[in-house]
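We were asked to recover a plausible sequence for a given structure. The inputs and outputs are reproduced exactly as logged, with field labels preserved.

PROBLEM: sequence recovery
POSITIONS: 425
GIVEN STRUCTURE:
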């Protein structure tokens, strides 16, 4: 074969490869870079979209954020009433006007600090002469060793969806639940009408129960370097004080439990910064129970090569510092993977993937997972009582039990009691 023929063959191969590459990029372009248009919207004409979250001074602090008008009104505050003492005070709010791609809204945050434990509070928000309705919340009893929270993965509900009905039904079934944790993608896209759907889905919940949410990929605008709009942090306002650079990280100490929130939808150089923050936070934690929340599963049900950067950076720390439970979303299925010792005994950490979205992905069974369920929308109740952490997963439609296990602290360390076989009987 002469040189000219060889050259033509190589040229042909290169052309085929380039065409294949272009076809592949074209097929992925929308997933990588397409941002739906945000339609023009007008600012709220009365204080609304109230979000109660934790603050940055652990379990006895709260932040209250809300939205009103397109300009900042300086006379803005929260009127807070201690129901037991019948005392009322004013907490001043900071305001910031945010210009999105097709509208402008003013956001307000009031930081409530030094709240009393086991106390009922009522509050309303004010912007000058305009005020909201009264809402109420309760702080936890720091002396108790029995408390619980509810976790949901992706929601991304359709407009006029069922999230509010389903969540209120779940909370009625579990009335002792103290706060709600979300695994990212709570909102379909960073667009005002999708944000309205999110607030509709959380109506009566976000005003009375602290919401703890992490970032997901649907929260970002898609560019070569992804961009998170500032309004995300103005709504989930603990990030205003806890973020490290552009990394939306946060940690909450709640009784003898500590939750660590990671921002997994970032490029490597951001994730490396998070790794250093994460390691330092774990080193300084003396909590009995450690729980990590992030959006992208460290062990994907969709393939071994997915999310390897997050796995390589975060998972060694999770194992080294004795994390008990890793709660994740993103893959629109339910799965649970329990770590195994060299003797194949179940051990911590336990990894779960969950979602509460009307969208289900076509997921195949994965041999690494101890439990998988494919067709539902789910919520998880994490209850800590004494030396036991109980994790139970329910189908949100009928509250049937999908998965359950206990992690028990004892003299020999930690023991896992897996209850899935009883559920399947």
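RECOVERED SEQUENCE:
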């Amino acid at each position: 074969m002469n040189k000219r023929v060889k050259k033509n063959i190589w040229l042909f191969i290169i052309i085929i490869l380039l065409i294949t590459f272009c076809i592949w990029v074209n097929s992925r372009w929308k997933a990588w870079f397409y941002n739906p248009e945000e339609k023009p919207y007008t600012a709220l004409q009365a204080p609304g979209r109230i979000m109660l979250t934790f603050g940055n001074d652990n379990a006895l602090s709260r932040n209250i954020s809300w939205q009103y008008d397109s300009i900042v009104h300086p006379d803005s505050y929260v009127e807070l009433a201690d129901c037991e003492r019948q005392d009322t005070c004013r907490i001043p709010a900071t305001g910031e006007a945010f210009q999105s791609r097709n509208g402008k809204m003013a956001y307000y945050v009031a930081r409530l600090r030094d709240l009393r434990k086991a106390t009922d509070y009522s509050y309303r928000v004010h912007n000058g002469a305009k005020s909201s309705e009264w809402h109420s919340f309760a702080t936890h009893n720091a002396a108790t060793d029995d408390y619980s929270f509810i976790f949901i993965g992706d929601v991304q509900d359709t407009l006029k969806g069922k999230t509010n009905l389903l969540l209120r039904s779940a909370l009625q079934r579990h009335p002792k639940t103290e706060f709600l944790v979300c695994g990212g993608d709570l909102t379909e896209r960073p667009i005002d009408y999708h944000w309205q759907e999110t607030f509709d889905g959380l109506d009566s919940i976000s005003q009375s129960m602290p919401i703890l949410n992490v970032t997901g990929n649907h929260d970002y605008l898609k560019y070569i370097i992804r961009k998170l709009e500032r309004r995300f942090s103005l709504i989930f306002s603990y990030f205003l004080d806890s973020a490290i650079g552009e990394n939306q990280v946060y940690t909450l100490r709640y009784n003898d439990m500590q939750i660590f929130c990671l921002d997994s939808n970032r490029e490597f150089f951001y994730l490396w910064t998070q790794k250093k923050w994460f390691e330092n936070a774990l080193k300084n934690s003396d909590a009995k129970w450690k729980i990590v929340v992030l959006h992208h599963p460290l062990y994907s049900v969709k393939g071994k090569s997915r999310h390897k950067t997050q796995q390589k950076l975060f998972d060694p720390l999770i194992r080294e510092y004795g994390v008990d439970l890793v709660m994740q979303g993103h893959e629109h299925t339910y799965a649970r993977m329990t770590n195994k010792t060299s003797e194949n005994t179940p051990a911590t950490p336990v990894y779960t993937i969950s979602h509460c979205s009307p969208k289900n992905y076509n997921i195949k069974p994965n041999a690494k997972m101890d439990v998988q369920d494919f067709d539902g929308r789910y919520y998880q109740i994490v209850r800590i009582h004494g030396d036991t952490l109980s994790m139970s997963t329910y189908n949100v439609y009928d509250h049937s039990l999908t998965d359950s296990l206990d992690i028990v602290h004892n003299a020999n360390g930690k023991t896992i009691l897996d209850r899935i076989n009883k559920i399947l009987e």
